[in-house]
């Protein structure tokens, strides 16, 4: 373990508790905080000019590489970034000694960096080098710029590295080693010409770099830059290389006689002019549900870059998708006009024509078959407000509770398991709590690929704060490799070892009975239900040695806070709800609720899968999980909406498909969901969609589901509308319109309102804020939500009281049951619906890839993502490959009772034995063609993870379907950080301001 690092999502305490003297003035401070933070706060208040610093970024902590923050501490030169505040300390931020040290340090930086700001794409008023040059009033360089013997590296699809401009500050290394913790970047300090290395080499391509963008975000100059910025940001930057080089030569030629002052003035004028064509808009990522927020820079419709900085969940962090996967916004195949089926093809029609057809068909079907012959599927990609309107359209306008969303495909078992035991089906705390936990238990999830930014918090705490990590999964993914304990249970058996561990903890006197007796009901019944779950039984069923389970039990019992992170590897089974229940029971018996750094964390897969359910797009609840069959709740909505509402539960997604096949459901309206590539047993679903009398699909591009539609409606993308998303940590955040909708596409809420009004709805919303006001009025869970409280980067985590007080920690004073206590919920283990057998002898697992999302409908529209993983593939264990004579690149056929796919093999020890793994990033050979119609017994979530197949080896041998440049073939180079001591050990280094020669650096203009 390296040196202790600060938390990334837990703000430091800066409340004054002592006093020190800065430049002769007493100042309150917080003991132990970094001096640079105190000095920066003083600067921000306008009290003092800034202390220069180039390498320091508050969210990363001290690097100590640039030396520009030198001040005098009790009479001695010291780096402000590495100095902890103590009582009585005396600080001098000015004076000859300090000035000499700071200028000497910065002059060394300029030796590595050619200032040509006016023609640089990074000259956008936020370049650290430019701004520090100005703050120090630099007129000349003592040391001339010294070129390095390296070319630009353009080998990555998304960003480039220019070693000529690299100042060797090490920000990128710190970000990679200790924020992202991918551990790819280092600096070869011992070289005659140090530079940044990828896996110890000079080329990005082929390294372990996951293109997360951390390094680009924190780079203080233009050494690391998004390719989408190059030649696009400035007025003079899109020039031919020769012309650009000539302009740089001119700038450098006039610098000696006139100094940097006039040159910087010119660059600042040009930089200010850029604001006329560069728009910066706060938005929320539309991929996973971590809830990363950032500014998107746009020039007209061109997306210049994504800049994270202030997001409560992510700060400076992004993943490859959030940073770079925005090609779908301007994709040439965006839907821009309504389409009407015309035989086997489609033709464009006007909005009025589309609405006329929808109105006629809806009214006809309702009149002929009743309102329950229509059904509605909302989207986990759309906003909260749009989910609310979708269910309102179904209930208040059409008169049916047939409404659902894609949480049915993944997260409903997690919600049910938690609602059974602790009342609310959401994360127990915040991402901040996850990084503070003493032990992280990951079960059936792969957050390094599916929730990367959240996972960086675990990796950092595990690397630098002593956090323990236990992983239970079928595959040896990255977090399994990092784990202190990694166990591979047999498929669909997690509920058994959860229960066995709980039984052992109770029987061994390790349970937190003080907590149980005070806060949990049904203990005796629960304890008795555990009788079958002996260690011996668990070993037999799960394949995990009893001794390992005993070790896990003791780890859990002694940990200072346990967080269980879980996802579709838990939920997508016939017993998914029971497994989620068992893990919550285990947390209750060990007292791991009602405290920071503990609890259950069902990692939501889509950006708004939490919000889509929260806002009522489910067949049995209104917004805030208010039951549709509760007369009092229903009466409240009826009074507000002025309608009579249906009284009984509607159809869920799974039941809708069955109802179409049975002839009961005549119309289906799907918004922002590609059902044919998402639902299980794709062949069966396709048959149903093909038989649907009237199918509307609303999306931003022509999805596979659109092929079955009668009407296709063009929706606006996330950057083209306002609204809110709710992340996995129950955090509600605003998105803002950055660009206008493309063509005739419209925001989903506007389309829903147009349809509602054609059906007599009489809605008159003019902005999503009005929809949210209605939500707050009707929903106790969101009583205090409004757009003013969510302005900018402000956010709220539900439940939210009417006064705006929110709940970062979900359970504090009580659990949301009548008596305020949680409930143990006994379960029985029932084997999976489908198991491997002599005929279908292999188990097929499936899931996402870091560099793609779902079937790739958004990510594949950014060309660079096709470079990383151009197609799907099948992971096969080395032992199975040897047995069947399979090498990487060989084509194989997989057959289940439900379908066939043809795919190339990748031989890897990520899987073992007769376990196979296939990513879901394909519409050509989709894995859900193989999955069954079996579902979780309680929620109808498809049992995607219970799939048995036959594999036939085909004669064709191709290239590796996972290109060698893919990061999975890289070799990380872990370090504690920048290892700045190696720089200090160089013979050409001394602390600035400590040598008599440093006084020669008098940077003043000789000719003006």
Description:
With 1008 residues, the chain is of the alpha/beta class. The protein has 32 helices and 35 strands. It has a seven-stranded mixed sheet, sandwiched between helices. Strand 32 (890-896) and strand 33 form a beta hairpin. Helix 6 packs across helix 7 (260-274) and helix 10 (384-398) crosses helix 29. Residues 1001-1008 have low confidence and may be disordered.
Distance between the termini: 55 Å
Radius of gyration: 30 Å
* Largest sheet descriptor: 7 strands, mixed
Q: Number of helical segments?
A: 32
Oligomer: single chain
| Portion in beta strands | 15-25%
Strand order of the largest sheet: 14-13-25-24-23-15-16
Mean pLDDT: 94
Low-pLDDT sequence parts? 1001-1008
Q: What is the strand tally?
A: 35
Percentage of residues assigned to helices: 25-40%
Shape: globular
- Alpha-beta content class: alpha/beta
Please supply descriptive tags for the structure shown above.
1008 residues; alpha/beta; 32 helices; 35 strands; 30% helix; 16% strand; disordered C terminus
Strand and helix layout:
Layout: E1 18-22, E2 25-29, H1 35-44, E3 70-73, E4 76-79, E5 90-92, H2 96-111, H3 128-135, E6 159-161, H4 171-179, E7 185-187, E8 196-198, H5 214-218, E9 224-226, H6 241-258, H7 260-274, E10 279-284, E11 293-299, E12 302-307, H8 320-324, E13 339-342, E14 345-348, H9 351-369, E15 374-377, H10 384-398, E16 403-404, H11 412-421, H12 431-436, E17 439-443, H13 447-450, H14 452-464, E18 468-472, H15 478-482, E19 485-487, H16 494-507, H17 513-519, E20 520-521, H18 523-529, H19 535-542, H20 546-558, E21 562-566, H21 568-571, H22 576-589, E22 599-602, H23 609-614, H24 631-641, H25 653-661, E23 667-671, H26 675-678, H27 682-691, E24 694-699, E25 711-714, E26 723-726, E27 731-735, H28 748-758, H29 768-778, E28 796-797, E29 822-823, E30 842-847, H30 863-868, E31 874-876, H31 878-884, E32 890-896, E33 899-907, E34 915-919, E35 948-957, H32 980-984
Parallel strand pairs: 1-5, 15-16, 15-23, 17-18, 17-21, 18-19, 20-29, 21-22, 23-24, 24-25, 30-34, 31-33
Antiparallel strand pairs: 1-2, 3-4, 3-5, 6-9, 7-8, 10-11, 11-12, 13-14, 13-25, 26-27, 27-28, 30-35, 31-34, 32-33, 32-35
């Amino acid at each position: 373990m390296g040196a202790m690092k600060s938390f990334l999502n837990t703000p430091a305490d800066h409340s004054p508790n002592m006093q020190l003297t800065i430049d002769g003035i007493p100042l309150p401070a917080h003991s132990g905080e970094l001096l640079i933070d105190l000095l920066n706060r003083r600067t921000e208040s306008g009290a003092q000019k800034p202390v220069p610093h180039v390498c320091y970024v508050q969210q990363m902590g001290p690097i100590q590489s640039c030396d520009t923050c030198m001040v005098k501490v009790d009479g001695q030169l010291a780096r402000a970034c590495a100095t902890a505040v103590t009582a009585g300390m005396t600080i001098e931020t000015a004076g000859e000694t300090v000035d000499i040290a700071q200028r000497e340090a910065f002059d060394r930086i300029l030796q590595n960096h050619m200032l040509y700001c006016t023609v640089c794409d990074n000259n956008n008023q936020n370049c650290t080098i430019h701004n520090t040059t100005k703050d120090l009033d630099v007129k000349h360089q003592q040391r001339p710029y010294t070129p390095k013997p390296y070319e630009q590296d353009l080998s990555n699809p998304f960003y480039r590295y220019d070693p000529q401009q690299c100042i060797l500050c090490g920000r990128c290394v710190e970000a990679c080693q200790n924020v992202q913790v991918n551990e790819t970047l280092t600096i070869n300090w011992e070289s005659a010409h140090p530079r940044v290395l990828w896996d110890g080499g000079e080329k990005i391509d082929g390294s372990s770099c996951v293109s997360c963008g951390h390094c680009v975000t924190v780079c203080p100059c233009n050494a690391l830059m998004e390719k989408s910025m190059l030649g696009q940001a400035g007025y003079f930057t899109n020039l031919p290389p020769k012309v650009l080089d000539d302009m740089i030569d001119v700038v450098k030629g006039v610098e000696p006689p006139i100094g940097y002052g006039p040159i910087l003035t010119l660059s600042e004028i040009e930089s200010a002019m850029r604001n006329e064509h560069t728009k910066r808009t706060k938005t929320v990522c539309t991929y996973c549900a971590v809830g990363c927020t950032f500014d998107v820079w746009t020039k007209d419709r061109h997306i210049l870059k994504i800049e994270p900085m202030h997001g409560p969940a992510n700060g400076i962090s992004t993943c490859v998708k959030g940073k770079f996967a925005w090609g779908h916004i301007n994709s040439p195949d965006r839907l821009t006009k309504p389409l009407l089926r015309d035989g086997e093809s489609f033709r464009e029609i006007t909005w009025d024509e589309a609405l006329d057809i929808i109105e006629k068909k809806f009214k006809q079907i309702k009149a002929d078959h009743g309102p329950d012959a229509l059904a509605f599927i909302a989207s986990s990609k759309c906003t909260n407000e749009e989910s609310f309107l979708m269910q309102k359209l179904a209930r208040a306008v059409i008169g049916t509770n047939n409404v659902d969303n894609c949480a049915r495909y993944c997260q409903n078992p997690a919600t049910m398991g938690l609602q059974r035991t602790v009342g609310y089906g959401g994360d127990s705390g915040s991402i901040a709590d996850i990084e503070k936990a003493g032990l992280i238990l990951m079960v059936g999830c792969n957050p390094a690929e599916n929730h990367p930014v959240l996972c960086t918090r675990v990796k950092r705490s595990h690397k630098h704060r002593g956090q323990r990590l236990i992983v239970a999964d079928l595959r040896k993914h990255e977090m399994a490799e990092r784990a202190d304990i990694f166990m591979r249970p047999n498929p669909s058996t997690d509920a058994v070892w959860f229960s066995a561990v709980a039984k052992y903890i109770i029987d061994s006197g390790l349970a937190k009975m003080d907590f149980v007796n005070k806060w949990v009901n049904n203990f005796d019944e629960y304890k008795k239900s555990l009788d079958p779950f002996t260690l011996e039984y668990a070993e037999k069923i799960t394949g995990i040695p009893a001794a390992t389970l005993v070790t896990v039990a003791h780890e859990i019992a002694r940990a200072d806070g346990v967080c269980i992170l879980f996802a579709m590897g838990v939920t997508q089974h016939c017993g998914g709800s029971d497994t989620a229940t068992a893990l919550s029971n285990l947390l209750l018996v060990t007292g791991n609720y009602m405290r920071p750094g503990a609890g259950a964390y069902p990692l939501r897969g889509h950006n708004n899968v939490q919000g889509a359910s929260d806002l009522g797009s489910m067949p049995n609840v209104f917004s805030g999980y208010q039951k549709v069959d509760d007369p009092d709740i229903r009466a409240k909505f009826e009074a507000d909406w002025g309608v009579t509402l249906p009284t009984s539960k509607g159809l869920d997604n799974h039941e809708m498909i069955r109802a179409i096949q049975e002839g009961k459901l005549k119309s289906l309206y799907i918004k922002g969901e590609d059902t044919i590539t998402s639902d299980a047993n794709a062949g069966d679903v396709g048959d149903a969609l093909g038989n649907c009398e009237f199918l509307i699909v609303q999306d931003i591009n022509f999805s596979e589901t659109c092929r079955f539609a009668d009407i296709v409606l063009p929706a606006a993308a996330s950057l083209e509308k306002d609204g809110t998303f709710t992340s996995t940590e129950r955090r509600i955040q605003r998105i803002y319109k950055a660009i206008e909708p493309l063509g005739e596409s419209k925001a989903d809420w506007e389309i829903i309102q147009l349809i509602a009004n054609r059906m007599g709805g009489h809605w008159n919303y003019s902005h999503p804020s009005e929809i949210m006001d209605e939500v707050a009025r009707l929903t106790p869970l969101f009583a205090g939500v409004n757009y003013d409280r969510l302005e900018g980067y402000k956010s709220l985590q539900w439940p939210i009281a009417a006064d705006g007080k929110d709940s970062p920690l979900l359970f504090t004073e009580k659990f949301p049951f009548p008596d305020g206590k949680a409930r143990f919920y006994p379960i029985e283990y029932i084997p999976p619906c489908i198991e491997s057998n002599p005929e279908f002898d292999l188990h097929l697992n499936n899931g996402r890839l870091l560099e793609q999302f779902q079937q790739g409908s958004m990510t594949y529209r950014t060309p660079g993502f096709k470079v990383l993983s151009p197609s799907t593939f099948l992971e096969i264990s080395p032992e199975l490959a040897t047995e069947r004579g399979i090498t990487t690149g060989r084509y194989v056929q997989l057959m289940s009772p439900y379908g066939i796919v043809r795919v190339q093999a990748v031989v890897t020890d990520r899987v073992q034995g007769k376990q196979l793994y296939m990513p879901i990033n394909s519409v050509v050979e989709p894995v859900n063609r193989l999955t069954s119609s079996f579902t979780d017994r309680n929620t109808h979530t498809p049992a995607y993870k219970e799939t048995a197949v036959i594999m036939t080896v085909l004669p064709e041998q191709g290239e590796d379907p996972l290109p060698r440049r893919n990061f999975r073939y890289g070799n990380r180079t872990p370090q504690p950080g920048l290892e700045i001591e190696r720089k200090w050990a160089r013979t050409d280094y001394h602390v600035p301001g400590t040598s008599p020669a440093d006084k020669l650096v008098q940077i003043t203009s000789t000719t003006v």
